[in-house]
Structures are given as structure tokens and as C-alpha cells.
């Protein structure tokens, strides 16, 4: 599937921009992650499965195994994983999986290299690790929020952990980042969690997000990205 086709398939989801002040970062990650996950076959390990945001896209995998820590899963109030496990000490034999995924996890670890090395250990040679992580995003998951990653930092981490980099995709440019931060400011600082205020401000943060998304696409996604999505190959 081409990137344009991937964008078009999610056009109906744009209505959610008027419901969710942080819609933009979700949809931009989805546009990149969905087609990558849909291409995974064989045995796939999902490290730090969280609320299962991308679960439905693993349809081609022969077997998908989700893992997460209890504290993380309980915080998300999501579906419990198949295996309770810390990504830095996975309870699987070496080479047990064809591919692995890891969404928005490594920024929450003080020692992310251990997770990358564990992913390399449980993957067969040539297997892919797909991961996403923010480069410019607000504090979240405190106090367990330690890093933000440039493409160079991701490359260094991947190569130190036993992978070669196939691709690192920025999910946005500076304009989308500005629009998302402005929408978050409206939701968090102006509405301050007040449900009535959030309801009344829906048209505002919806229009802000869609306007800056359009401007970002028009500008060619130049500048600073909210997140990066990396495609790493086990050496």
C-alpha cells in the first residue's frame, strides 16, 4: 500500500479531531504504523502492548504474543497482555520470533538499550523490530519519562543493540507539532479538565488540528517531528 493510499483510508477518522485534543499525534502515527504492521507475518512479539491501539492491524501474523508490565497495563486499564513481562528481561528463548513491535515504550525506560538487546535476542536473524517513540512531545507517564529521540539517537541505540536501520520515518513536521501543542494547550490549560468546557471547545481544537495538519502536509512535513517510527533489522 502506498503512503497516499494509507492516508486516504484514514480520512473518515478526521472527525475525531473534534473530540480528542491529542487526535493529531494519534492519526499521524497510525498512518505510518498501520501499513508496516499489516505486512508482518509469522510469529510476532508486541513488547509493551499497553491499551492495544494497533491490535487489529496484526491480522497477517500467524501468531501474535502481547507482553507488558502490570503497572503499565493497569494504568491504561486495557486488555491484559498474554504474558506479563518486562521488555528488558523477556521470558522467551533466543530466536523465538520472526518480528517484534514496540510502541511508545523506550522513552519510559532509564536503560532502553537493554530492551533493544532483548528484542535482538528473541528475534531470528533478519527479523524486523518496528518501534515508535516521541521526539517532541510533552511530559507523560511521569515520573517514568526519561528521553526524547532524534533519528541519530535511534540509529545509535539500534546499532548498539544488534540491529541495522532500514528506515526512520518522521510522523510530522513543525507545523503539525505546533498545531498539536496548541490544541493540547487549549484542552489542558484553558479547559483544565472541565468536561463542559471541553465540549464547548471541541470546534476550536478540532479546527486547529485539521488546519495545522493541512499546512504541515502542504509544507512537506519539514522541521521537527512529534514522533519517529523506526524499521530495524536484526543483524
Description of the molecule:
This protein is of the alpha/beta class and 235 residues long. It has a single domain, classed as Rossmann fold. It has 8 helices and 7 strands. The protein has helices at residues 3-9, 23-38, 70-76, 112-122, 151-160, 174-190, 195-200, 202-219, and strands at 42-47, 61-68, 83-84, 97-103, 123-134, 163-170, 227-234. The protein has a 7-stranded mixed β-sheet, sandwiched between helices. Helix 6 (174-190) runs antiparallel to helix 8 (202-219). It is globular. It starts with a helix and ends with a strand. The model has no long low-confidence stretch (mean pLDDT 93).
Please provide a brief summary of the model:
The chain is of the alpha/beta class. It has helices at 3-9, 23-38, 70-76, 112-122, 151-160, 174-190, 195-200, 202-219, and strands spanning 42-47, 61-68, 83-84, 97-103, 123-134, 163-170, 227-234.
Amino acid at each position: 500500500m502506498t503512503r497516499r493510499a494509507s492516508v486516504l483510508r484514514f480520512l473518515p477518522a478526521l472527525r475525531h479531531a473534534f473530540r480528542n485534543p491529542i487526535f493529531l499525534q494519534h492519526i499521524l502515527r497510525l498512518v505510518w504504523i498501520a501499513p508496516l504492521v499489516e505486512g508482518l507475518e509469522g510469529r510476532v512479539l508486541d513488547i509493551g502492548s499497553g491499551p492495544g491501539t494497533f491490535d487489529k492491524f496484526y491480522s497477517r501474523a500467524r501468531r501474535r504474543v502481547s507482553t507488558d508490565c502490570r503497572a503499565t497495563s493497569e494504568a491504561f486499564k486495557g486488555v491484559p497482555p498474554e504474558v506479563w513481562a518486562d521488555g528488558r528481561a523477556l521470558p522467551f528463548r533466543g530466536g523465538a520470533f520472526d518480528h517484534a513491535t514496540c510502541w511508545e515504550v523506550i522513552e519510559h525506560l532509564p536503560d532502553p538499550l537493554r530492551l533493544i538487546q532483548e528484542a535482538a535476542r528473541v528475534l531470528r536473524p533478519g527479523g524486523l523490530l518496528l518501534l515508535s517513540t516521541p521526539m517532541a512531545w510533552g511530559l507523560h507517564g511521569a515520573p517514568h519519562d526519561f528521553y526524547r529521540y532524534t533519528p541519530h539517537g535511534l540509529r545509535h541505540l539500534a546499532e548498539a543493540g544488534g540491529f541495522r536501520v532500514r528506515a526512520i520515518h518522521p510522523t510530522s513536521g513543525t507545523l503539525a507539532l505546533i498545531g498539536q501543542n496548541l490544541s493540547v494547550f487549549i484542552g489542558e490549560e484553558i479547559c483544565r479538565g472541565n468536561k463542559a468546557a471541553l465540549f464547548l471547545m471541541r470546534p476550536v481544537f478540532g479546527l486547529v488540528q485539521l488546519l495545522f495538519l493541512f499546512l504541515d502536509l502542504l509544507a512537506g512535513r519539514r522541521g521537527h517531528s512529534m514522533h519517529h517510527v523506526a524499521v530495524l533489522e536484526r543483524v
